[in-house]
Structure formats: structure tokens, C-alpha cells
Write a structure and sequence with these properties.
Layout (H helix, E strand, L loop, with lengths): L8 H7 L16 E5 L2 E4 L4 E4 L2 H4 L8 H13 L11 H13 L4 E7 L2 H18 L7 E5 L8 H4 L20 E3 L12 H14 L3 E6 L3 E2 L5 E2 L2 H13 L3 E5 L23 E4 L11 E6 H9 L15 H16 L2 H12 L11 E7 L2 E6 L8 H11 L1 E2 L6 E4 L7 H16 L7
Parallel strand pairs: 3-15, 5-6, 5-7, 7-10, 10-11
Antiparallel strand pairs: 1-2, 2-3, 4-12, 8-9, 11-12, 13-14, 14-16
Helix pairs in contact: 3-10, 4-10, 5-9, 7-8, 12-13
Bound molecules: pyridoxal-5'-phosphate.
Pathway: Cofactor biosynthesis; biotin biosynthesis; 7,8-diaminononanoate from 8-amino-7-oxononanoate (SAM route): step 1/1
Main location: cytoplasm
Function: Catalyzes the transfer of the alpha-amino group from S-adenosyl-L-methionine (SAM) to 7-keto-8-aminopelargonic acid (KAPA) to form 7,8-diaminopelargonic acid (DAPA). It is the only aminotransferase known to utilize SAM as an amino donor.
């Protein structure tokens, strides 16, 4: 595994964009040579316990032999083949599994290459559905504040307008209807006033609204908000009542992260359209899917266009589909509910952070743990806190005022303790002030 050539950090800094980063004043990046299980190996010799699962995706850790084996086997047949006019066993097998494990009304699968694209496809499905019904007025989307649905333009237009800097793209971005973010907490009681307020928005806007799009139960990148299942149930009911489709974006929450296989199960509802991605391949390849019902698919296909107007070059990529099949098998073969519950119990250690003066809130749901700092704390300096975390032997990447963990499901008790302790020490020592 030893790299003879060291990773050229100068070239990286001069020429390569990283996520949400300045090209002229980038924060440092850490050179990784390999990753295995829940350990990330740096070229400089440090071994870091992973607390991020590479942004919700690496649920089985890295370099998992079963996923590797499935990918090698697929490479030996073909890594890629176009999906137009062609099909293959990895796509068929994967879509069978997806139809099987997602809510029962979802029977039709569109494979795409990233989460954002699956959201674009979901939006197209909703618009095309109403057009096919001869209804031309439904061209807006409705969505709560604090949402996150990706960085492409249609997806961005339904992200929280402040977090995603809508003002930068004003005039270019389509404008949609924003409703208040859910406020009743996951484990408290549901405030009926939220339902009444939502109903007003539906009443006033439904004629122009094609679909309501929401992340079920956990609003992630928009603030790690864990909200009450009755909010989602209420949205479902209002969508039925006012003829609005429901798009659930489970790109982050899917595949067990919240304690249910899909977070919609907390509210016992069926979406009209479902987006999945991130953990779909166990974090090994980029792949996403948009699922919908017979009703929507039939509507679209019998409308004027007669087809769904989307077809990525790498649609149904065999290598990614093979990895996804292996990842889903791995998940379902184990008692994953118990695994998530164990991680949940261990993440409760984060609650001791509440005694620290800078901490506003600590919350844990499924295999997600969040420590939120006070408003008064100026934003966390990511470079400073990451340098501290690397010294502690952990990989954690906060954003805004949130320091959070979503470790791979294979993480052991000691790893989680080390992650939680590192967060406590970072806050106690205020290792987030700009150095
Ligand atoms: C990450 C994410 C997306 C975007 O997925 P990409 O693969 O980054 O394009 C969309 N919605 C949610 C809820 C996400 O967490």
C-alpha cells in the first residue's frame, strides 16, 4: 500500500477545487493513502477513526471485502455499458432489491449518478406528471426552510435559501414556496399549530404546486434538525387533500441511519417519489435512484411527451450497481436494527457536552449524534478544529455551529468513545477559534 510518490499537496492547492472551498485561500487538505474498516490512513502516518462515513455513505466502512469482490467480479465482465437499449444483470438485480425494500407503492426505478441528479429527476417526474394530466398551472415546488437537496440548480432552488446562498443566484434560480421548518422535536409532542400553519400554505398555494419536497425526519445539511414524525404524516395528508405530490429525499437518511431502513417508516407514510443515494453503494461508487409509483409512471408515459426526459451517460453503471447489490445484501444479512441501537446507545455519551458553556444542544437519533454550539460562538474555524481532531486521531468535519457524528455501522465501542471524547475536548478547549 506504500505510495512511492508522495501526494503533491502543492499541485493540489494550486489547481484543484475541493468542496465549498476558495481556490485562492483553501484550508489544508489531508493526504490519504488508504482506508480500511473505520480507519483512514494518512500519508503522514496518522491513523484516524472515521466519524463521518464519508458524508453518510460508507456504512460498512472502507474496503469491505464483499463489496470489493462484487466490484472485481463486475469489472471482469464490464465496468460500464450504455443503458440506452441495453440492460444487464446488476441493474436488474439492484432494482428488484430496491422495489422490494422501499415502501410498497414504489415500483418504478430510475437510476442516476448522484444525489443531486436524482432530485432533478424527481422534480421532472412531478412536473411531467401534472402536464400529462392536462394541468399546466402546477409548476412550483413547496418545501420547508432548513432543507438540503443538492447543489445542482433545481435541487439548490429547494435548499434553505440562506444556507445555499440563494441571493447569489437570484434572477437565475426558480422561486418556490417555502414553509416554516418543522419545529416539534422528534421525541417530544407534535404541536398542532404546525399542522394549521402548513394547511394555510397548502390552501393558498396548491393550485401552483406540483410537489412538496422534504427530507424525512432529519433535515441534515440545513441544520441537523430531527423533527416529529407527525409533521411528515401531516404533510402526506395535506398532499392528498390538495392534490400535491410528495417527494421524500432519503439520500442521507436511507439504509438504516435513523433506525428505520427508510426514515419515512417513522411516520408510516408512502411518498409518491423517493430519492436515494449516498449509502446506496456503501460509499464505494457514486450512484443514486429515484423511485415512483405505477400511477405517476403511467401518467408520465401516457402524457404528451410519452417518455421521461432524462438519460445520464452513466445511467445504470454496472460497477456501481454491483457494489450497491453487495452493500444492500451486507446490510440486510445482519441484525442492523440492533447495530444501530448499539451505536445510538454509545453516542449518548455526547450528552456530557451539554455541561460545556459553548454548547446549546446535544441530540442523538439512530446512528447520528449532533452537538450544536451557541449562537454567540462565531462560526467554527474548520481548519483549526480539524487540525485538533487529527491530533486526537479522529476524522470529524463540522459545519456552521454543528459538530456531528455519523460513523460507519461497523464502528466498535472504543472508536465511538474516542470520537465522542474528541468532540468534548475540542469544545472544552475551544479549539475552533481561528488560530
Ligand atoms: C447529499 C445530499 C444530496 C445531494 O447528493 P449528491 O450526491 O451530493 O449530489 C441531496 N439530498 C440530500 C438529503 C443529501 O444529503
Amino acid at each position: 500500500m506504500n505510495n512511492k510518490h508522495s501526494i503533491d499537496l502543492n499541485f493540489d492547492r494550486e489547481h484543484i477545487w475541493h468542496p465549498y472551498t476558495s481556490m485562492t485561500k483553501p484550508i489544508p487538505v489531508y493526504p490519504v493513502t488508504h482506508a480500511k474498516h473505520n480507519i483512514i490512513h494518512l500519508e503522514t502516518g496518522e491513523q484516524l477513526i472515521d466519524g463521518m462515513a464519508s458524508w453518510w455513505s460508507a456504512i460498512h466502512g472502507y474496503n469491505h471485502p464483499a463489496i470489493n469482490k462484487a466490484m472485481v467480479n463486475q469489472i471482469n465482465h464490464m465496468s460500464h455499458i450504455m443503458f440506452g437499449g441495453i440492460t444487464h444483470s446488476s441493474a436488474v438485480e439492484l432494482c428488484k432489491k430496491l422495489v422490494d425494500i422501499t415502501p410498497s407503492s414504489l415500483t418504478k426505478v430510475f437510476l442516476a449518478d448522484s444525489g443531486s441528479v436524482s432530485v432533478e429527476v424527481a422534480i421532472k417526474m412531478a412536473l411531467q406528471y401534472w402536464l400529462s394530466q392536462g394541468i399546466k398551472t402546477k409548476q412550483k415546488l413547496m418545501t420547508p426552510y432548513k432543507g438540503y437537496h443538492g447543489d445542482t440548480f433545481a435541487a439548490m432552488s429547494v435548499c434553505d435559501p440562506v444556507n445555499s446562498m440563494h441571493s447569489l443566484y437570484k434572477g437565475f434560480l426558480p422561486e418556490h414556496v417555502f414553509v416554516p421548518a418543522p419545529t416539534s422535536k422528534f421525541s417530544s409532542t407534535f404541536e398542532q399549530s404546525e399542522a394549521l400553519e402548513l394547511e394555510q400554505y397548502f390552501k393558498n398555494n396548491h393550485q401552483h404546486v406540483a410537489a412538496f419536497i422534504i427530507e424525512p425526519i432529519v433535515q441534515n445539511a440545513g441544520g441537523m434538525n430531527f423533527y416529529h414524525p407527525d409533521y411528515l404524516a401531516c404533510v402526506r395528508q395535506l398532499c392528498n387533500q390538495y392534490n400535491v405530490l410528495l417527494i421524500c429525499d432519503e439520500i442521507a437518511t436511507g439504509f438504516g441511519r435513523t433506525g428505520k431502513l427508510f426514515a419515512v417508516e417513522h411516520a408510516n407514510i408512502q411518498p409518491d417519489i423517493l430519492c436515494i443515494g449516498k449509502a446506496l453503494t456503501g460509499g464505494s461508487m457514486t450512484l443514486s435512484a429515484t423511485l415512483t409509483s405505477d400511477k405517476i409512471a403511467t401518467g408520465i408515459s401516457e402524457g404528451e411527451a410519452g417518455v421521461l426526459m432524462h438519460g445520464p451517460t452513466f445511467m445504470g453503471n454496472p460497477l456501481a450497481c454491483a457494489a450497491a447489490c453487495a452493500s444492500i445484501d451486507l446490510l440486510l444479512e445482519q441484525n442492523w436494527q440492533q447495530r444501530i441501537e448499539e451505536i445510538n446507545n454509545q453516542l449518548q455519551q455526547l450528552h456530557k457536552c451539554i455541561e460545556l458553556e459553548d454548547v446549546a444542544d446535544v441530540r442523538v437519533l439512530g446512528a447520528i449524534g449532533v452537538v450544536e454550539l451557541n449562537k454567540e460562538v462565531s462560526n467554527i474555524d474548520v481548519a483549526t478544529i480539524q487540525a485538533f481532531f487529527v491530533k486526537q486521531g479522529v476524522w470529524i468535519r463540522p459545519f456552521g455551529k454543528l459538530i456531528y457524528l455519523m460513523p460507519p455501522y461497523i464502528s466498535d465501542e472504543n472508536s465511538i468513545k474516542t470520537l465522542c471524547d474528541a468532540i468534548y475536548s475540542a469544545i472544552k478547549g475551544k479549539h475552533y477559534a481561528k488560530a
